[in-house]
Amino acid sequence: MATFSTLAYFPITIRFSWNRASSYDPNKKSLNNIKINGTSTKSTTQLDMASALTSVAYISEQQVRQNIPTTKQFVDHYRQGMIIEGGVGYRQRVVIRSYEVGPDKTVTLESILNLLQETALNHVWMSGLLSDGFGATHGMMKHDLIWVVSRMQVEVDHYPIWGEVLEIDTWVGASGKNGMRRDWLIRSEATGHVFASATSTWVMMNRTTRRLSKMPEEVRAEIAPWFIEKQAITEDVLEKIVKLDNKAKYMNNDLKPKRSDLDMNQHVNNVKYVRWMLETIPDQILEAHQLTSIILEYRRECGSSDIVQSLCQPDEDGILKDGLKQDKETSLVNGFSLAAEILEGNGFLASFGNQKLRYTHLLKIDGESQNDEIVRGRTTWKKKSFSP
User: Fold this and answer.
1) How far apart are CA 377 and CA 240, in angstroms?
2) Residue 289 to residues 17, 252, 343, 356, 387, Cα–Cα distance (Å)
3) pTM for this prediction
């Protein structure tokens, strides 16, 4: 008997159009009623629109559609966001959608990273500093600068489920003389339980030369008032990630970026890097375990024409051949690893269930001998719970 998807009975046609005179949204300003630089244009409604805009200021169709604020906003009803932390932090309420969860009905790591990126950009949007770049301020656009992430760490205690309502807090702080730190906290709106925390370090790069740049004083003056001395993840000493070579246990070659993998800065999106990393881990590990921590150190950009190699190496000093972890302070009885808690009577399964697996990762440009590293990574995994 043949089976058919119910979707087959409902053909869907989607059309995108931009009509200047459209009034489907009563909250949208029409082009005939725009207020520019504090000057009312009501008197120009009977004039030719092109000449009116030329005489006051130039505003593009894109700017009208995006409606980017030029002054600080405190509440964003569309994105369900608000300014917190004494006027400098940002909080957004989000609902986990069906396309953001995986087979186990919990949100995927890629979806978490996308939410972090989205809330960060919305924070800049609310500040009134956003220009038409990808998170760039007006001063950055003047100096042809963009943000690039140099390091990111995400700790996940619990994965949200489909339909769950979350609150995501984000804020920024100084990182050295020329960098910026951005942190996040993700919590359940219902219980207040913190599901995940993240921290990242960002530096500036010249859009044209693709070289790192010092922070201009003009830009520092823009963003410094938003800095908070608060950290979501505290690390006294940053963990050093070793560089893997072609002797790595797991390897995935000939990875080619697609056009859909590129972001607005014309390089491969950070989330795609994580996908390439995780797909190198064996399926049996991914099916039975859940990621609890990921650290990423970004080294260079990846372009659309690059061919990428993904390397992965498990911590051999912590894993036996059958996949069971053996710490240094363990006793061996009949070939099995027995931790102190087992000897005290808690049982083998309880001990194994608490053990974590750790992997080192590297993405690199295939065929290059120097400056070939894209990103180094470290992941930590725990045994997956059967209920979300």
Assistant:
1) 10
2) 45, 20, 25, 9, 13
3) 0.77
123 in active site = no
pLDDT score of 65: 82
Task: Please say if 265 is a catalytic residue.
Answer: yes
Cβ atoms within 10 A of the Cβ of 25, count?
Answer: 7
Q: Which two tokens stand for residue 86?
A: 């004494």
Q: Three-state SS for 147?
A: strand
Predicted confidence at residue 192, as pLDDT, reads: 95
**312 belongs to the catalytic site:** no
Active-site choice (122, 123, 265, 270): 265
Contact 233, 153 (CB under 8 A): yes
Structure tokens at 93: 């309420």
By three-state DSSP, how is residue 98 classified?
helix
How does pLDDT run across 274-300, given as a tens digit for each residue? 999 999 999 999 999 999 999 999 999
Give the 3-state secondary structure of residue 112.
helix
How far, CA to CA in Å, does 331 sit from each of 47, 206, 318, 334? 87, 55, 14, 10
